[in-house]
Amino acid sequence: MPLHDVPRRDERPLSVNPFLGPANPLGDMTEAPPKHRLPDAPMAPATAYQLVHDELMLDGNARLNLATFVTTWMEPEAGLLMAECRDKNMIDKDEYPRTAELERRCVSMLADLWHAPDPSVAVGCSTTGSSEACMLAGMALKRRWARRNGDRYPSRDARPNLVMGVNVQVCWEKFCTFWEVEARQVPMEGDRFHLDARAAAAMCDENTIGVVGVMGSTFDGSYEPVADLCAALDGLQERTGLDVPVHVDGASGAMIAPFLDDDLVWDFRLPRVTSINTSGHKYGLVYPGVGWALWRDADALPEELVFRVNYLGGDMPTFALNFSRPGAQVVAQYYTFLRLGRDGYRAVQQAARDVARGLAGRIGETDDFRLLTRGDELPVFAFTTAPGVTAFDVFDVSRRMRENGWLVPAYTFPANRQDLSVLRVVCRNGFSEDLADLFAEDLTRLLPDLRRQPRPLTEDRNAATGFHH
Ligand SMILES: *Cc1c(COP(=O)(O)O)cnc(C)c1O
């Protein structure tokens, strides 16, 4: 069984058009390939290509997907480099020493960008995305805590916990489940939709392996107050002696804040921040498949978690869940760093934020909607229906916008704001002012219809909105 739902298994074989066959147009039609069983016989590559290509036409248009944070457009040159490197396995450091070197340069660049005290000794690695990076960072926190508490764990059954906001991305719940750590989640309260520094410190005890601060929240695009969090934990240490480290989940924001929010201190400048992750494939501007995890120095990453692979006759440290992994994404990350530089990243991220603010402003001006965030932290904003609106809800808006090809997720907030449902728009590179205008026009055109509804009409909320990230 595949892990995703297959509603009803359709046993009809694939239909092959006579035009798809090579020299003999009937050649590939003689045995229609089954869908769920490995076909008995091979077929011509052109036929196989066309069958797969045609089926994929019905996937949504990635550029109109305002639900995802993940890069949907890169330059042709980046595509070319990735094609040139698609046969390289990241783990083969010895066979592909230059790819390994580019990975190392990317780590140094990020360490410098995030103000590691000495970028030359900061340690880090590429991953398949932030989820893997968060697993690694969480494992390092757990191992450091276990070392400090060898007298109580595992022999005396102390149960490690990790403190975070209820708004964290699902990868943190996965981490806690997979690695048997208790997830202690600070609920939302009123108009606070992310972690509160004092509430987080209050949840810490001698079994807390760390606190996660998110730059920025996937629920509404807001930055969590990392500096306040560190200050609250400094206070905790003064009062109780507990020294609790902070991991910053910068999946999106660690590639926004360094370019657009110079004055905001959230990174390794704060001594309590021991590790940071980001998704190269989000605002790092690379196609899906790359993330980064960095530790402020070698002390922050327990040596026993690091494995060694052969590298030019010597050995090279690696820290990863996977063994084999594509090298192309790492090369594309290095290309993008080189191509854009700081000024280029600043320009791209500023453009995304300008689009987000502009579009949020227009939506906020209508009487129909109320903004929760304004797109001025991550280039992402969340909005809900205005208090007096009873004819339609956010799920109706999501469903109707889908008719125009726009994917805008609608979802309900977690504790203690399950009463609140919102729409979220993620503005990425490639979602231009012009596309934002078209989006706003489509939304405006729908409103008279929606206002005339007798009541909210969406029966299947999940079908209306799709998955949110
Ligand atoms: C996207 C995201 C993740 C997961 O990252 P992937 O790169 O998709 O694995 C984790 N945390 C936050 C805050 C995110 O936005």
Please provide a brief summary of the model:
With 469 residues, the protein is of the alpha/beta class.
Question: What brief labels describe this structure?
Answer:
14% strand; 469 residues; four-stranded antiparallel β-sheet; binds pyridoxal-5'-phosphate; 12 helices; alpha/beta
Secondary-structure map:
Elements: H1 45-56, H2 76-84, H3 97-113, E1 123-127, H4 130-148, E2 161-165, H5 170-178, E3 182-186, H6 197-203, E4 208-214, H7 226-240, E5 246-249, H8 257-260, E6 273-279, E7 291-295, E8 307-311, E9 314-318, H9 328-365, E10 369-371, E11 380-385, H10 394-403, E12 410-412, E13 421-426, H11 433-451, H12 461-465
Parallel strand pairs: 2-3, 2-4, 4-5, 5-6
Antiparallel strand pairs: 1-7, 6-7, 8-9, 10-11, 11-13, 12-13
Helix pairs in contact: 2-9, 3-9, 4-5, 6-7, 9-11, 10-11
The structure holds pyridoxal-5'-phosphate.
Pyridoxal-5'-phosphate is lined by residues 69, 129-131, 134, 169, 171, 214, 218, 249, 251-252, 279, 291, 469.
Secondary structure tally: strands: 13
For the terminal residues, how far apart are their CA atoms? 24 Å
Radius of gyration based on Cα positions: 24 Å
Extract low-pLDDT stretches. Answer: none
User: Helix content range of the residues, please?
Assistant: 25-40%
Main sheet characteristics: 7 strands, mixed
Ligands (ions, cofactors included): pyridoxal-5'-phosphate
Strand order of the largest sheet: 1-7-6-5-4-2-3
Summed up, the helix count is 12
